[in-house]
Design a protein that fits this description.
- This protein is of the alpha/beta class.
- It has a single domain, classed as Aldolase class I (TIM Barrel, Alpha-Beta Barrel).
- The chain has an eight-stranded parallel barrel, surrounded by five helices.
- Helix 1 packs parallel to helix 2.
- It is globular, with a radius of gyration of 17 Å.
- The structure holds phosphoenolpyruvate and manganese (II) ion.
- The site of manganese (II) ion (MN) has 4 residues, from loops.
- Its EC number is 5.4.99.5.
- Keywords: Coiled coil, Transferase.
């Protein structure tokens, strides 16, 4: 497989490429306020979940299509690129209709070949970067299968997100990193950009910096970090979200060593 760069025009090709924004788009005010603060810290690619795959029913399941308009407003007002998660054909249509710049496939969706195939079929002929999160279960072949489904549909601007793997065992991690799995993926596909999601691996604010540094030491290309203007009040993943100010501090403290293979 030959991949094209996932980078959008004007985003510097320099490690770490940063994607940041709230777990969920909650309200227009929260989306805009967080975006303005992140843009002020130099973030160029904004993330916000519009359809939220919650483990159990009863939680906030996303603001849906209206939130895509808030993301369009983010682009207009801050100049940032905007990205969201897609899990179904409808999500893809709506995201393209509202001009998302980048899409990602969530961990629960990557574990479902029917859903990945549906997304791939819907994206046929569309020129958009797509990031594929690892499946919730530690199954490298399933992750590669999802990459192949998109690639076979003609998409070449593909990247992957390492967000850790579910566990029932008590652990300091929310999702076990199992670093050997993404490392093996990188060994097999050296041109595939790999982005670390320390927010979902760590599950708490205090772990973001250490996991981000580990990813940089392992030569990862980028980081996707959940950031919210008021993390304590977030409607999802509150414990792991950090303010744009904290994000900037963490990024400033990261040590980026030159590539040593
Ligand atoms: C998210 O990015 O907010 C999310 C739902 O992540 P994951 O698919 O990794 O659980
Ligand atoms: Mn989240």
């Amino acid at each position: 497989m030959e991949f094209e760069s996932i980078l959008l025009p004007g985003v510097e090709d320099k490690r770490p490429v940063i994607i940041a924004g709230p777990c969920s788009a909650e309200t227009e005010e929260q989306v805009l306020k967080t975006a303005v603060e992140l843009a002020g810290k130099g973030v160029k690619i904004y993330r916000a979940g519009v359809w939220k795959p919650r483990t159990k029913p009863g939680g906030f399941e996303g603001a849906g299509t209206p939130a895509l308009k808030w993301l369009q407003q983010v682009r207009r007002e801050t100049g940032m690129y905007v990205s969201t998660e897609v899990a179904t054909e409808k999500h893809v249509y709506e995201s393209l209709k509202y001009n998302m710049d980048m899409l990602w496939i969530g961990a629960r969706t990557t574990a479902n070949p029917f859903a990945v195939q549906e997304i791939a079929d819907t994206l046929k002929g569309v020129d958009i970067p797509v990031l594929i999160k690892n499946p919730v279960n530690p199954d490298l072949e399933l992750w590669i299968g999802a990459i192949e489904r998109l690639y076979n549909a003609g998409l070449t601007k593909i990247g992957v997100i390492h967000r850790g793997f579910s566990t029932n065992d008590k652990s300091v991690y929310r999702n076990m990193p199992h670093w050997h799995i993404p490392i093996e993926l990188k060994r097999r596909f050296p041109d595939l950009p790999i982005i670390c999601d320390p927010s979902h691996i760590g599950g708490k604010r205090s772990m973001i910096k250490k996991i981000s540094q580990q990813a940089m030491d392992l030569n990862y290309y980028g980081l996707i970090i959940e950031s919210h203007c008021n993390p304590d009040e977030a409607w999802s993943d509150s414990a792991q979200q950090i303010t744009p100010g904290t994000l900037a501090d963490i990024l400033n403290e990261l040590v980026i060593r030159d590539k040593v293979q």
